[in-house]
Design goal:
heterodimer, A: DNA polymerase, domain 1, 43% helix, B: 389 residues, DNA polymerase, domain 1, Rossmann fold, nine-stranded mixed beta sheet, DNA repair protein RAD51 homolog 3 (chain A)
Chain lengths: 362, 389
């Protein structure tokens, strides 16, 4: 209501004419009729109608919306519990993340080459499809591949292993029924695949993601593997790259919350030389570090693969060991089960603990 | 897609004109700026700017498929290397649509492997080949047509006993010699037409490292970034070509000495590791960013004076594994792999994997043996040495 005219999302030429005609605040314009505005400001009739419609959408309903749309923390807690998270099948990592990769947030996975980022992404694309009665989300996945590392034989292996894992867990009739529909074919059919060759195609895909997610409301996971490769070699103007990446990050977090999906971004590592020492840091620059809600860094230590949670609003920093087996992303064999403060009930699979937690709170 | 002109996407003519005044002519130009910048440059309101971006996105966006569509074309996903143990580990062979790098010390067999794969690609499908042409970009002038023919005759003696088949195979391998970085990049940018004209099913670039290392001295400031950008561009073009035509791309790389603490290597025993702690070790060249860019990395290295090893250092489908081989007249032959020490579920950073180089030289005086195979009319006299160094 007290918005000034220059701050309205109108075309610059229209704004200039309105200001020259003496309109300073949005409240000056709100009661005008189109033809009157047209004459006084010297703008065309269509432009006048556009201005008034924008003000109408912006004005009254906004105040009412403000009252009803505020969320209490309790509402948010129920929402977060209801929406769940995606298990990774590595129970140490699931515990560190507080149950799994959270839906409604963006998670960045950085790592050196060959450490397992693509493996983890493929595993999550399979795990999101585990039926609800087994503690999963029963959703579909969208995999945006910019590197060409998505090899379907590996996903088929992981899907096969996941089906077998669920078969061993099936106890009651509901689970057995769900198991009949859970086949490798179904898992592969619910995994949408897009191959982007450069940053323009990636940006285009993200602009159109809201439409895609509205058409496919069962999608619960969006993976971009990797977001670093298309942005690392084509840009002389690094500030333009930062602007585009920030825009991308904002769009993705908006998607995550509005459509209730988990967004996973894979990043690469780059060498930074300081004081004659070189070390590996996540690529894409310092400001990109703020983009994702959670940041997981996968790295080698000698022969072992470790995952460190580096940034999270709700979990403690932790480092756990994992391994990549024929079946996929799993716990490392000789690590004792970590006892962290956040784990509710530990079990060999993360599934049972999730079910218990939801029932505890209802 | 990205370079599509605006006027072909359904944008109104006067809007195109307005955008042209600000040098925005293609989809890429417009999508590379933020909505607020577009508002200012095009004189649009915010919702109109977002709508324009969505319209252009629809013109550029790649198609959506599912993993099931890919899985149904299972037979076309891999290129068999005719080395059974390697194919088994790689779940069928070299992936079509991705980059495979072969790196290692000189003389280990990288070019031999490339020549062998070239022969295999020209074979009919019934023999495990791709029945297609081969584009071989040679930057070191290491490709030898005689060796190609000799290997073909030795590896598939019955098939190539017919001289016409041999000639046809040789005519399907298209060789391009490029000697500078810019030449290589230009060639890659125009390669689509060549791939279609040659009906190529395999692209070999031997080697990526030699031209780049000749021209860029990375101790000079700024050169490292330029080199990384160049390699990134080459990788992006190669990935596009390999995915668009569904062909395997094989690249060769060299080695460099990495000065720093020694990284533990799974297949060496403790005795090897404990000596030479901090003197630096030999690893794949071209740096960490390049290690990210290739999808599969095979390292060839020396095991002892006779035998060599292929190490699968990075692969989306295969575990870390080591296979022994020798280089013979018929190309690469796997041997001594009865108890493969693979599937360790371990590994190291493929950019830091230590590589064994040749430490001793054996000078053998061998008897010259007359060649027992068909001679092609124009073949030159061959020297008598039997071992391939």
């Amino acid at each position: 209501m007290h918005r000034t005219v220059p701050s309205l999302p109108l075309a610059p030429s229209v704004k200039v004419k309105l200001i020259n005609a003496g309109f300073q605040l949005a409240s000056d314009l709100i009661d005008m009729r189109p033809l009157q505005l047209c004459k006084e400001a010297g703008i065309s009739q269509e432009e006048a109608v556009e201005v008034l419609q924008m003000l109408r959408d912006d004005g009254q309903p906004h105040q009412q919306r403000a009252a009803t749309e505020s969320l209490t923390a309790l509402d948010l807690l129920h929402q977060e519990q209801a929406v769940g998270s995606i298990v990774t099948f590595c129970s140490a990592l699931d515990d560190a993340l507080g149950g799994g990769v959270p839906v409604g947030k963006t998670t960045e996975i950085c790592g050196a080459p060959g450490v397992g980022k693509t493996q983890l992404c493929m595993q999550l694309a399979v795990d999101v499809q585990i039926p609800v009665c087994f503690g999963g989300l029963g959703g579909k996945a969208l995999y945006i591949d910019t590197e060409g590392s998505f090899l379907v034989q590996r996903v088929a292996d992981m899907a096969e292993a996941a089906v077998q894992h669920c078969t061993l867990l099936a106890e009651d009739t509901e689970q057995r029924q769900a198991l009949e529909e859970l086949t490798v074919e179904k898992i592969l059919s619910n995994l949408f695949l897009v191959r982007c060759h450069d940053y323009v195609e990636l940006l285009a895909e993200v602009y159109l993601l809201p439409d895609f997610l509205s058409e496919h409301p069962e999608v619960r996971l969006v993976v971009i593997d990797s977001i670093a490769f298309p942005f690392r070699h084509d840009f002389e103007d690094l500030s333009q790259r930062t602007r585009l990446l920030n825009g991308l990050a904002q769009q993705l977090i908006q998607l995550a919350t509005q459509h209730s999906v988990a967004v996973i971004l894979t990043n690469q590592m780059t060498t930074r030389v300081s004081n004659g020492q070189s070390k590996l840091v996540p690529a894409l620059g310092e400001s990109w570090g703020h983009a994702a809600t959670q940041r997981l860094i996968l790295h080698w230590k000698g022969l072992r693969r470790l995952a460190s949670l580096y940034k999270s609003p709700s979990q403690m920093e932790a480092t756990i060991q994992y391994q990549i087996t024929v079946q996929g992303f799993r716990d490392a064999p000789d690590e004792p089960r970590p006892t962290t403060a956040s784990s509710a009930v530990s079990s060999p699979s993360g599934n049972h603990s999730k079910r218990l937690r939801m029932e505890d709170l209802s | 897609m990205a370079s599509k002109k605006l006027r072909r996407t359904g944008v109104s003519a006067d809007l195109c004109e307005r955008l042209k005044r600000h040098q925005l002519e293609t989809c890429q130009d417009v999508l590379s700026i933020t909505p607020v910048e577009l508002m200012r440059l095009a004189g649009l309101s915010y919702p109109a700017a977002v709508e324009l971006l969505r319209l252009l996105s629809k013109a550029c966006v790649p198609a959506v498929s599912t993993a099931w569509d890919l899985w149904r074309k299972k037979g076309e996903l891999c290129f068999s290397t005719s080395l059974p143990a390697l194919d088994r580990l790689l779940r069928g062979g070299l992936p079509r649509g991705a980059l495979t790098e072969v790196t290692g010390p000189s003389g280990c067999g990288k070019t031999q492997l490339c020549i062998m794969l070239s022969i295999l690609a020209t074979l009919p499908r019934s023999m495990g080949g791709l029945d297609s042409g081969v584009i071989y970009i040679d930057t070191e002038s290491a490709f030898s047509a005689e060796r190609l023919v000799e290997m073909a005759q030795d590896r598939f003696p019955e098939f190539f006993s017919v001289k016409e088949r041999l000639l046809e195979m040789a005519s399907r391998v298209h060789l391009f010699r490029e000697l500078t970085c810019q030449d290589v990049l230009n060639r890659l940018e125009r390669l689509e037409e060549d791939i279609i004209a040659c009906r190529a099913g395999l692209l070999v670039l031997d080697s990526v490292a030699s031209v780049v290392r000749k021209e860029f001295d990375t101790s000079l400031p700024g050169n490292l970034t330029i080199r990384s950008n160049l390699l990134g561009q080459e990788a992006a073009i190669l990935k596009y070509l390999s995915q668009a035509f569904c062909i395997p791309v094989v690249l060769t790389n060299q080695i460099t000495t990495h000065v720093g603490e020694k990284v533990h290597c799974p297949q060496w025993n403790q005795a090897d590791v404990s000596t030479e702690e901090d003197s630096g070790f030999v690893t794949a060249a071209l740096g960490n960013t390049w290690s990210h860019s290739v999808n599969t990395r095979l390292i060839v290295q020396y095991e002892d004076t006779e035998r060599r090893q292929i190490v699968i250092a990075k692969s989306p489908v295969a575990p870390f594994a080591v296979l022994s081989y020798t280089v013979q007249k018929e190309g690469i032959r796997l041997e001594g792999n009865e108890n493969p020490e693979s599937v360790l579920n371990q590994g190291t950073d493929p950019g830091l994997q230590p590589i064994r180089v040749r430490t001793g030289f054996i000078y053998n005086l061998s008897q010259a043996t007359p060649s027992t195979h068909q001679e092609l009319p124009l073949a030159a006299e061959r020297s008598g040495s039997n071992c391939l160094i």
